[in-house]
Design goal:
heterodimer, A: 250 residues, alpha/beta, Rossmann fold, 6-stranded mixed β-sheet, 9 helices, 9 strands, B: 319 residues, mainly alpha, 76% helix, globular, binds adenosine-5'-triphosphate, binds magnesium ion, transmembrane helix (chain B), membrane (chain B), ABC transporter permease (chain B), ABC-type transporter activity (chain B), transmembrane (chain B)
Chain lengths: 250, 319
């Protein structure tokens, strides 16, 4: 595995009034890995992703993504990074294809190029049959799939996925996990994903970070975290057990 | 640029295919058809036997038929076009969660607001040009008046001023859609401000003028006081974009008018001049007279947009 650092934050802090959403975060994500971002509601995961994209201004500290400062080079960063927001929205009067075309347009893709890409992506996320349906008539899971397709249009090097499997049926979730893994393996896309589903995170992540109340309290591979909490032993601990242990001690 | 064009194209398509555009357009087309029809009938009756009027074509727009002229109609209800096109520009995208998606694409953030504003302005221009053309065609066919070169110029300038005027309201509506998260609030706020600026200011101007320089009707009326009263009234009412616009277009569309000022404020020579010489003002002179009004109108439009721009750029977008 490559060891180049692709995302790095130093003392990254975000305050809303007197509330600290992210507190002195030092995070390193290596190129080509799948990094699982864990933490209870309100821990500051989404806020961190927004700052990494240059959509939110840090109160203190700074971040580097693909060697760029997202605050100054927001547009360049967004060229490399695909971001799936936690509640992705769509223009209701557009169908799936039109919605994808608009995103392709915003990314400066040529018409022909975009058409091929859209066709391919609709197949990839399993929405071929719904291509002409208005997004207003989409179910939660179908929207999530369309969101994933939109993120992939720009051929990203890095993916930020904020709770990507939320609302997907078990089969859809497994498909998406497989898709993320294959993108990671074949196209060497780095993935930073936040999720509350620990089984899924355990299944795909190379490393995880646990964030509580704006601070990163643990970071590393699942094995190394288990070792830290339970010591070396025969038993394999699940991520759930490890997470709960960290959570109780925090 | 690529982002700006993409947003512009999408927004323009949305506008032109939306029900609100169709309804607005139908309404305005209907009213302009009726008013110009009235004007045409009026002209036919009154111009019969007259050797020639200098600007018969412009009269189609400036003659109040039964209720109001085309020009007055745009002054009153033009703002509604701007408001309707802009009141939910940003907050609708916020509530449906598309704003974050759009600005996490590789575009500059200002492409969103610039694209939306430009698309709105283009829609307004399309609407106004279409209406002017319809009325012109109607005038040609029904009354048989042919526009002269100067009349075409005047109409053109009138169109430009009108586009700025309605764009001011568009900018205002977009500003409210940025400031207020709820669509209901932003629409209410923009309509409230429209009613206030358009209808209450003239009332308020009267009140202010009468408080500052009350005209004592019981005793002998002093001319200075009357003058002062009129001057204050005019000054205050200029803070209404509608009055600003009416003044700006007045001498453009009606060459016989030589000043934007009320009769009472004219100097004796000026009064003499306008009474003695019933000849139309040349185009250049018409423009000179309303130049400050035009500049003021353009300025408030740009300022309004600049404020929306800054507020939007500084706002945090989470949805
Ligand atoms: N606009 C805002 N104003 C004030 N506080 C905010 C604002 N947005 C977020 N916060 C606060 O910041 C903190 C972090 O929120 P964030 O959305 O990053 O959490 P999260 O880890 O993504 O949670 P979840 O798992 O529920 O998605 C929360 O305490 C939240 O209340
Ligand atoms: Mg979140």
């Amino acid at each position: 595995m490559e060891t180049e650092t692709i995302i790095e934050t130093t003392n990254l802090t975000k305050r809303y009034g007197h509330q600290t959403a992210v507190n002195g975060l030092n995070l390193k994500v290596k190129e080509g890995e799948i990094f699982g971002f864990l933490g209870p509601n309100g821990a500051g995961k989404t806020t961190t992703l927004l700052m990494l994209l240059g959509l939110s201004r840090p109160s203190k500290g700074h971040a580097t993504v693909c060697g760029l400062n997202p605050l100054r080079m927001a547009r360049e960063v967004k060229r490399h990074v695909g971001y799936l927001p936690e509640n992705v929205g769509f223009y209701e009067d557009m169908d799936a294809v039109q919605s994808l075309e608009y995103v392709a347009d915003l990314n400066g893709l040529k018409k022909v190029e975009a058409r091929e890409k859209i066709d391919e992506l609709l197949g990839l996320v399993g929405l071929k049959d719904q291509a002409g349906k208005k997004t207003a008539a989409f179910s939660r899971g179908m929207k999530q799939r369309l969101g994933v397709a939109e993120v992939l249009i720009k051929d990203p090097e890095v993916l930020f996925l904020d709770e990507p499997t939320l609302g997907l049926d078990p089969e859809g979730a497994i498909q998406l996990i497989n898709l993320i893994q294959s993108l990671n393996e074949e196209k060497e896309i780095t993935v930073l994903l936040s999720s509350h589903n620990l089984h899924q995170v355990q299944k795909m992540s190379h490393r995880v970070g646990i964030m509580i109340d704006g601070s990163l309290i643990a970071e590393g591979s699942i094995d190394s975290l288990a070792e830290e909490k339970f010591g070396v032993g025969e038993k394999e601990y699940s991520l759930e057990e490890i997470y709960m242990k960290y959570f109780q001690e925090a | 640029m690529q982002g700006l064009y993409a947003v512009f194209k999408k927004e323009l398509q949305d506008h032109l295919s939306s029900y609100r555009f169709v309804i607005l357009f139908a309404l305005i087309a209907m009213v302009s058809f009726i008013t110009s029809y009235m004007a045409a009938v009026h002209m036919r009756e009154n111009l019969e036997g007259l050797a020639s009027t200098r600007f018969p074509f412009l009269m189609l727009f400036s003659t109040p038929g039964a209720m109001f002229s085309m020009v007055q109609f745009v002054a009153f209800f033009g703002p509604l076009i701007g408001l309707i096109l802009g009141f939910d520009a940003i907050n609708r995208e916020r509530t449906q969660g598309t704003l974050i998606k759009v600005i996490s694409q590789p575009i500059y953030r200002d492409a969103v607001i610039n694209g939306k504003f430009l698309a709105g302005v283009t829609t307004i221009a399309v609407m106004l040009v279409a209406i002017v053309l319809v009325i012109s065609g109607f005038g040609l066919a029904f009354v048989g008046v042919v526009p002269g070169v100067e009349e075409i110029w005047r109409l053109f300038i009138y169109l430009i001023i009108s586009i700025f005027y309605i764009s001011f309201w568009l900018g205002l509506a977009i500003l409210f859609s940025i400031l207020f998260k709820s669509i209901a609030t932003s629409s209410l706020a923009s309509v409230a401000l429209w009613i206030f600026l358009s209808f209450f200011i003239s009332l308020g101007a009267e009140v202010v003028a009468n408080t500052v320089a009350p005209i004592d009707r019981k005793n002998e009326v002093q001319p200075e006081v009357v003058l002062e009263n009129a001057r204050i009234k005019e000054l205050v009412s200029l803070s209404s974009p509608m009055i600003l616009y009416s003044n700006a277009t007045a001498t453009i569309i009606d060459p016989m008018r030589k000043t934007t000022r009320s009769l009472i404020l004219m100097g004796p020579m000026e009064e003499l001049l306008s009474a003695r010489f019933q000849s139309p003002l040349p185009l250049g002179q018409s423009i000179v007279i309303v130049f400050p009004h035009i500049i003021a109108l353009i300025a408030i439009t740009l300022i309004c947009f600049a404020i929306s721009y800054v507020v939007f750029m500084l706002q945090e977008v989470r949805t």
